[in-house]
Amino acid sequence: MDKIMKRLFIKTISYCLLALGTVVFTNCEKDSNIKQYVYPAPEVSGYSPAAGYVKSRVAILGHNFGDRTEAVKVSFGGILADKVLSCNNNCVVVEVPEEAMSGDITLQVWTNSVTVGSYEIWPSPIVSEMLTESGSTIIRPGETVTIKGTGFGTAKEDVVVKFGGVNAVVTNWSETEVHVVAPEEFPTGEVVIVVNGFEVVAGTALNPLAKGDVSIAYLKNYRQPFKIDPNMTDAQLGTSPGTYLPADWIVNDAARSMQNGGASEKVAGLNSDNLLLQAGWGANDFTNGKLYQTTTLPKGKYRLTVNLKEYGVKKSTLYITVAEGNDLPDVTDINKENEKVKGFYLFNQVENMSPSSVQFEFELTEESTDVALGFVCSMTANGWFRATELKLELL
């Protein structure tokens, strides 16, 4: 019986090998008859434009382009384009690569290549500086701004300048210098020079007369991360500083209640990236402590908002105020009857350990007014506040 089974097994294996050989032979015969597909050569009828900047777009017209962007390669002066933006059978749109050079445009579709024509790369416009009448980024409508650089086109009509997206009037032009008048009611934002469609950011324009948040135009070091006064001395810093004087803020002697380890002079104003005045926890009590900065504001109605991380003034008096001049009044002089005081907020004598915001509005009637704004307080232990940001809005 075992011999019979063995013979059957051998016969089965033999039949399988014979069948496999037949299949392989048959397939080899079929493969020898396969013909390679030949893609039609692309035909170009035109292209536009024939000159421009890097990163601009070029359209190539013709036939047999297919509809798959991955099959298309376009080179400018031998430099392969990174972006074929679209492709259908009669139009290819491509972005000129940043490293492109003047020379022939070459189009390749699958395995076929053709020369489209020549393309001239224009030198990209470059801005070297933007000059304003004030010497700062604060620009009033009607002021003349000068933009210097290279590659500003071949005619005045080639150039458009925008302030926060609003077109300005170009009064004088050359290939290296453009004079422009800031438009009326432009929003604070970027100044962009557009040369033949190529955009370059020239700088930032802060319109002090634009409604809305004008903090960046009039306040300094007004939000986190706060900057430390670079003029702090070793006597103030000590050997293990944790409290600092904030840059661009004035901290009067009364408010300087804290002393760093190894220091011989007291400081206050900035701790753990918060504006801070404090009494208690090693800091002495004080009366009429002031933390403020000065600025000049144009005529208008304003809102001042202060964001706080926390505060505790159960036995203390804390004001945020705006006053005419270069100093803030004492606690007892902050009231509506004082003509120098333009606005204020008096904190309730409570403790608040949650983030919060306080605000008040004030109005200036003169064309221009020098003001001081900030904190005035008299504190006993344990009193403190931690502020994270100030925001000034023109209403």
UniProtKB/TrEMBL annotation:
<dbReference type="InterPro" id="IPR013783">
    <property type="entry name" value="Ig-like_fold"/>
</dbReference>
<feature type="domain" description="DUF5013">
    <location>
        <begin position="220"/>
        <end position="369"/>
    </location>
</feature>
<dbReference type="InterPro" id="IPR032181">
    <property type="entry name" value="DUF5013"/>
</dbReference>
<protein>
    <submittedName>
        <fullName>DUF5013 domain-containing protein</fullName>
    </submittedName>
</protein>
<feature type="domain" description="IPT/TIG">
    <location>
        <begin position="42"/>
        <end position="116"/>
    </location>
</feature>
<dbReference type="InterPro" id="IPR002909">
    <property type="entry name" value="IPT_dom"/>
</dbReference>
<dbReference type="InterPro" id="IPR014756">
    <property type="entry name" value="Ig_E-set"/>
</dbReference>
<dbReference type="Pfam" id="PF16405">
    <property type="entry name" value="DUF5013"/>
</dbReference>
<dbReference type="Pfam" id="PF01833">
    <property type="entry name" value="TIG"/>
</dbReference>
<feature type="domain" description="IPT/TIG">
    <location>
        <begin position="140"/>
        <end position="196"/>
    </location>
</feature>
